[in-house]
Amino acid sequence: MNKALRPAVIAGNWKMNKTRPETKALLNELLPLVKDATCQVIVCPPFTCLETAVSALAGTNIKVGAQNCHWADNGAFTGEVSAGMLFEMGVSHVIIGHSERRQYFGETDETVNKRVRAALDAGLGVILCVGETLSQRECEITGDILALQTKIALMGVTGKELGRIVIAYEPVWAIGTGRTATAEQADEACGGIRGVVAGLYGDSAAGGLAIQYGGSMNAANASELLGRPHVDGGLIGGASLKPADFAAIVAAACQ
Ligand code: PGA
Q: For residue 238, which atom of ligand 1 is closest to its CA?
C-alpha cells in the first residue's frame, strides 16, 4: 500500500513530566495549534494526568494514550494499572515496550507481548515500541533485533487486531540524546519492520500499518524523516512538551 493511503500518527510521550495544572496549560496551548490536523494526534501524559487530559480533550481530534499498562485485569499487583482501567477512563491508546521500560523496569519481549494482548483485549489501541541499542547496531544485527522484538510482541495478535496497532521504531541510542537516526536509517529500519509484518500477516496488512520513528525527532528534522516512504509518523519525547514544536511536527506529518 502506498504511504499516502496510510494514516500518519504523531504521538507525544510526555514521560514522567507535568502535573495536572501543567497538563491543562500545555493542552490549552496545543489545541488551537493542532485542531485542524489531518493526521492522528495522540498525547500520552503520566497516569496521574490522564483524566485531566481526557476531559480537556473531549470532543476534539486529539486522543489520549497512557505510557504503560499491566497484563492482568486486576489483582494483587501493587503499583500497577490495568488496560481495562485505562479504557474505562476514556484513554484510547497505550504505549507498550518503550525502551526506558525495557532498560530500567525489567520489561522483556515476553512481558511486552502480554501487555499488548491485554491492551487489545481491553479495547485499546497500542503503540508498540521496538528498537536496537548502539552496540547491536554496531554489530550489524539491527534487522534481527527488530524482527525478534516485533515477532514476539505480536504473538497471538490476529490480523484484525493489527489494525489497532502502531509500531514505533525507536533506536535506543537516539532517545533523549539529541542524536537522531538519519532519514535513511529510519526508513530502512521501518521498511524492515514492515517486511517482518508482511511475513506474518501478508502484504496488504503490512501496507496499511502505521510505523513511526522516535528518537530526538523535532521541529527541524521532522519533515525529512516523515518524508520517507516507510516513516508514517513519530513518537515524540522532549519536543512533545513544547506545544509549538509538537504542533510543527504535526504540521509536517499532515503535508
Ligand atoms: P525523545 O524521546 O524524542 O526525547 O528522544 C522519544 C521517546 O522516548 O519516545
A: 4
**Among 137, 60, 83, 225, residue whose Cα is nearest residue 236:** 225
Ligand 1 pocket, Cβ-based, cut-off 6 angstroms: 13, 170, 175-176, 214-217, 235-239
For the chain, how many structural domains are there in total? 1
Percent of the chain at pLDDT exceeding 90: 95
Kindly report the CATH number assigned to the domain that includes residue 167: 3.20.20.70
Type of residue at 51: E
Q: Give nearest CA residue, ligand 1 atom 3.
A: 237
CB 13 within 8 Å of CB 217: no
Q: How far is the CA of 89 from the centre of ligand 1 (A)?
A: 25
The confidence score (pLDDT) of residue 93 equals 98
| Annotation says 132 is catalytic | no
C-alpha cell at 232: 508514517
- How far is Cα 205 from Cα 192, in angstroms, rounded to an integer? 15
| 228 neighbors 186 (Cβ within 8 angstroms) | yes
Domain that holds residue 45: 9-236
Choice among 100, 107, 132, 170 that is catalytic: 170
Query: What angle do the packed helices 20-34 and 243-253 form, to 10 degrees?
Result: 40
Is residue 251 assigned to a domain? no
- Mean pLDDT on 204-210: 96
